[in-house]
């Protein structure tokens, strides 16, 4: 790429331009830009000012023309000019001294490369668009002439004038007539498309840029959370040290105490018992609560005072014996009479549990509570929330540990550890107080208390239990998959010759060369980098044309299976338990669904064909147990039936009909017992398309059918289920009024683009609004089901434990002696979560491994 000492940022001006004087309808059909575009522009303008980047804007003159004018002036002086833009219009200005860098496709065009792409000389570009017009700018062109015809005419004639002088040489009467009727529009369109020169009055020196002031942009980078830029243009070590010192100084007047004498420990225990409610935080050696060592604990029962108890520091500082600390604090932490507050409480609870303390009395997890009240706030860390709510800067882990090159927190000196950990518990208490009020004020208290809070204990038990992974099953599968991969590679060599030996099938670029240049298969689309795409969709189409594409597709599927699951899953086995312990999060998915990571066990393949399903055979219950899988049937559609109260949907579910068959029968006007497998599949796709708020265009693309056919399906669907349409419209009206949508239990999701004039953004917001209510309500039903089920297992004294939640499905480990009773309890509890006029239906399967219970 190019490095330059001369850069200018060019903007369009507001209002009409010189082209509007010629053609009033110029750009009249453009959709309004996204509303946040103007906010983004303000940040860019501010950024450019901070770093000293020259900006140019001229009233009534478009940015394209300004760029063209600068290029004209600079090339006369012998300079080379690069346009940094993805605007095709600038291509007409390319020359031996002028280049175009398309940042969207990451391609640099010179004159020859651009001409090769367009299929005609650059000088003919205005001629081409005089005929074709330009929809984006509302340039009319010649009505009736498309891209193919325009290209042919441009390559046959020298110019627009030449075309009209030799009009009789155009063979098609229709084209000749179109050119005759639209002659004025053709010349108008050319004039509108042509770049215009306007003197800028700027010298080369005026464009000088030396990038000496990047540091001035740091506050903006911090405001926008541009982590990579902050890292690249970060503070020097001295500046960072000063920043840390300022943060430490901020907390110096608060009473933070190190507890490292028997007297102090006894006093702390007495103090906590008297206060009866406190925030606490654990400090550890790692992020995995099941393997991390406890280093210390901090406590805060009132603003302005906090205590840190070092437990396992590797420093020379004075510490109490571990058994003394446990003896003093365990009775308090295990007593539900004392209320506790924590940020990411599940982590702290698991850490304590692995050190012999069974936490009781958790009153609030500020991480989970904050997620409910904040508007799509993604940064829920305690440090960010402290700054957001209280404008109080806190030391980060990196500033305490990594900045000082400590191996982990156990090597941090007690004075710094005390300040850091006490600030954590102090701010957690402040946050808990504020959030308790906010939850009630925003009518989110019931959602938190009835669903999110009790779920923490269920998830703790699931993560603690883990799930056994039989590595021998994966090793056998690895041999099968490795052999299949080798067979595929041999077949490809057989089909294309020895060239196949040189190709890395995992390289998209090499696959592109093979498919489109060696085999000369027809390209389907381009990727974001401007190269021909070889994604799953493209390979699926090409597989119908050439067997190599199908083999590459299969090779990719097997490679992903091997790399993502067969090879990776064993690395997550806890050596102490021989189990995989995933982490579940309540705060990642906007709809309220749970997510799973380290590893993600919600993405384990479930398909009934191929080797993917075999991965599940490696997950097994502990000896003497069986797996029971419980699956909610069509729960989101049942939610839709309840929320819309559509009589046809309700009756179908009450009658026990398969809703996909029911929909197919209504769409194709056939009896239920005559619906074909293909029709049911289409009914299923349409049911979920409606649920996800797809437009006719989206449905046509999804089903690969004509737009008109998709439109008919949607219209007929809403005719058959009229209250569904009415409910959806009411959802949109409510979202536009409130700015957010709510699930049945009040979970909110803000929909900022619901007022967008830009159609694409509005339709996406509409889909989000509709789907969030259905999916979010279904997610809350599942969460309530998990809470009730855990309680039922305890009440009925069943040896059973929920291990995994996969959206609408639960995987449960049950002692063989309790299998039948547990299956009945599971079905009864999950089906009775809500008392609605549409039944919830749960199916259960039992077996010796996860594969065996997968439908």
Find the count of extended strands (DSSP E, 2+ residues): 23
**Class from helix and strand fractions:** alpha+beta
Integer count of domains: 4
Largest sheet: 6 strands, mixed
Strand content: 5-15%
What value does the Rg take, in angstroms? 33 Å
Which descriptors would you attach to this protein?
single chain, 855 residues, alpha+beta, DNA polymerase, domain 1, Taq DNA Polymerase, Chain T, domain 4, 4 domains, four-stranded antiparallel β-sheet, 23 strands
Quickly describe the structure.
The protein has 855 residues and is an alpha+beta fold. It contains 34 helices and 23 strands.
Tell me what you see in this structure:
- The protein is built from 34 helices and 23 strands.
- With 855 residues, the protein is an alpha+beta fold.
- It has 4 domains: 8-207, 5' to 3' exonuclease, C-terminal subdomain (DNA polymerase, domain 1); 237-442, 2-Layer Sandwich (Nucleotidyltransferase, domain 5), CATH 3.30.420; 469-579, Taq DNA Polymerase, Chain T, domain 4 (Up-down Bundle); 637-774, 5' to 3' exonuclease, C-terminal subdomain (DNA polymerase, domain 1).
- The strands form 7 sheets. Strands 6-9-8-7-10-11 form a 6-stranded mixed sheet, sandwiched between helices. A 4-stranded antiparallel sheet has the order 13-14-12-17, with no helix packed on it. Strands 21-22-18-23 form a 4-stranded antiparallel sheet.
- It is globular and about 100 Å long.
- The model has no long low-confidence stretch (mean pLDDT 92).
């Amino acid at each position: 790429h190019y490095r330059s000492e001369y850069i200018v940022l060019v903007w369009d001006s507001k209002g009409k331009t010189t082209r509007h004087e010629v053609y009033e309808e110029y750009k009249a059909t453009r959709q309004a830009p996204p509303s946040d575009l103007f906010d983004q522009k303000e940040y860019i303008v501010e950024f450019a000012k901070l770093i000293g980047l020259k900006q140019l804007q001229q009233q009534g003159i478009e940015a394209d023309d300004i760029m063209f004018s600068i290029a004209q002036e600079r090339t006369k002086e012998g300079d080379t000019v690069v346009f940094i833009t993805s605007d095709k219009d600038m291509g007409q200005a390319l020359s031996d001294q002028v280049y175009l860098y398309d940042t969207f496709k990451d391609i640099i065009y010179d004159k020859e490369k651009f001409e090769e792409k367009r299929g005609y000389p650059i000088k003919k570009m205005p001629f081409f668009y005089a005929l074709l017009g330009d929809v984006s700018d509302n340039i009319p062109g010649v009505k009736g002439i498309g891209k193919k015809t325009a290209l042919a005419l441009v390559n046959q004639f020298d110019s627009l004038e030449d075309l009209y002088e030799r009009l009789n040489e155009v063979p098609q009467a229709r084209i000749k007539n179109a050119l005759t009727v639209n002659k004025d529009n053709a010349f108008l369109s050319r004039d509108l498309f042509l770049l215009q020169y306007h003197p800028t009055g700027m010298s080369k020196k005026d464009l000088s840029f030396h990038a000496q002031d990047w540091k001035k942009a740091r506050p903006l980078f911090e405001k926008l959370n541009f982590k990579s830029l902050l890292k690249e243009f970060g503070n020097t070590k001295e500046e960072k040290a000063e920043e840390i010192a300022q943060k430490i100084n901020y907390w110096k007047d608060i009473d933070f105490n190190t507890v490292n004498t028997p007297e102090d420990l006894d006093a702390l225990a007495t103090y906590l018992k008297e206060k009866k409610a406190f925030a606490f935080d654990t400090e550890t050696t790692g992020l995995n609560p099941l393997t991390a060592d406890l280093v210390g604990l901090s406590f805060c029962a009132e603003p302005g005072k906090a205590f840190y108890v070092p437990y396992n520091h590797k420093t020379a500082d004075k510490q109490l014996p571990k058994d003394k600390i446990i003896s003093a604090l365990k009775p308090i932490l295990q007593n539900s009479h004392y209320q506790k507050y924590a940020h990411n409480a599940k982590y702290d609870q698991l850490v304590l549990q692995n050190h012999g303390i069974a936490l009781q009395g958790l009153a609030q997890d500020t991480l989970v509570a904050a997620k409910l009240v904040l508007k799509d706030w993604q940064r829920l860390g305690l440090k960010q929330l402290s700054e957001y709510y209280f404008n109080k800067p806190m030391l980060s882990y990196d500033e305490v540990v990594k900045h000082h090159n400590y191996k982990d927190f156990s090597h941090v000196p007690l004075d710094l550890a005390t300040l850091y950990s006490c600030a954590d518990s102090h701010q957690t208490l402040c946050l808990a107080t504020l959030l308790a009020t906010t939850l009630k004020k925003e009518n989110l208290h019931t959602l938190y208390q009835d669903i999110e809070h009790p779920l923490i204990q269920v998830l703790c038990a699931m993560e603690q239990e883990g799930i056994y992974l039989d590595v021998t099953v994966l090793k056998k599968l690895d041999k099968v998959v490795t052999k299949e991969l080798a067979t595929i590679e041999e077949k490809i060599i057989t089909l294309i010759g020895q060239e196949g030996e040189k190709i890395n099938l995992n390289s998209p670029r090499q696959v592109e060369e093979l498919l489109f240049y060696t085999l000369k298969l027809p390209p389907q689309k381009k990727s974001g980098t401007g190269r021909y795409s070889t994604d799953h969709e493209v390979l699926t189409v090409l597989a119908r044309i050439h067997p190599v594409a199908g083999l590459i597709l299969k090779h990719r599927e097997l490679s992903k299976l091997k790399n993502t699951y067969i090879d990776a899953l064993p690395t997550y086995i806890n050596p102490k338990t021989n189990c995989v312990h995933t982490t579940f999060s309540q705060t990642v998915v906007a709809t309220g669904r749970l997510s799973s990571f380290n590893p993600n066990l919600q993405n384990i393949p479930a398909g009934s064909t191929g080797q993917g399903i075999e991965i599940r055979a490696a997950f097994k219950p502990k000896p003497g147990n069986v797996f029971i899988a419980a699956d909610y049937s069509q729960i989101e559609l049942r939610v839709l039936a309840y929320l819309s109260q559509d009589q046809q949907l309700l009756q179908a579910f009450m009658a026990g009909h398969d809703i996909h068959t029911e929909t197919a029968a209504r769409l194709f006007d056939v009896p239920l017992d005559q619906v074909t497998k293909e029709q049911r599949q289409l009914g299923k796709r349409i049911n979920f398309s409606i649920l996800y708020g797809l437009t006719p265009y989206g449905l046509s693309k999804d089903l690969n059918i004509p737009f008109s056919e998709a439109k008919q399906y949607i219209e007929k669907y809403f005719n058959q289920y009229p209250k569904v349409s009415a409910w959806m419209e009411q959802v949109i009206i409510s979202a536009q009024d409130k700015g957010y949508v709510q699930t049945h239990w009040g979970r909110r999701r803000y929909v900022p683009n619901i007022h967008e004039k830009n159609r694409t953004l509005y339709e996406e917001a509409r889909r989000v609004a509709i789907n969030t209510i259905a999916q979010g309500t279904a997610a809350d039903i599942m969460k309530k089901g998990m809470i009730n089920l855990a309680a039922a297992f305890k009440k009925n004294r069943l040896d059973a434990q929920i291990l995994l939640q996969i959206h609408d499905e639960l995987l449960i480990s049950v002692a063989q002696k309790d299998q039948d009773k547990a299956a009945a309890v599971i079905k009864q509890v999950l089906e009775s979560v809500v008392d609605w006029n549409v039944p919830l239906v749960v199916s259960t399967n039992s077996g010796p491994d996860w594969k065996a219970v997968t439908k």
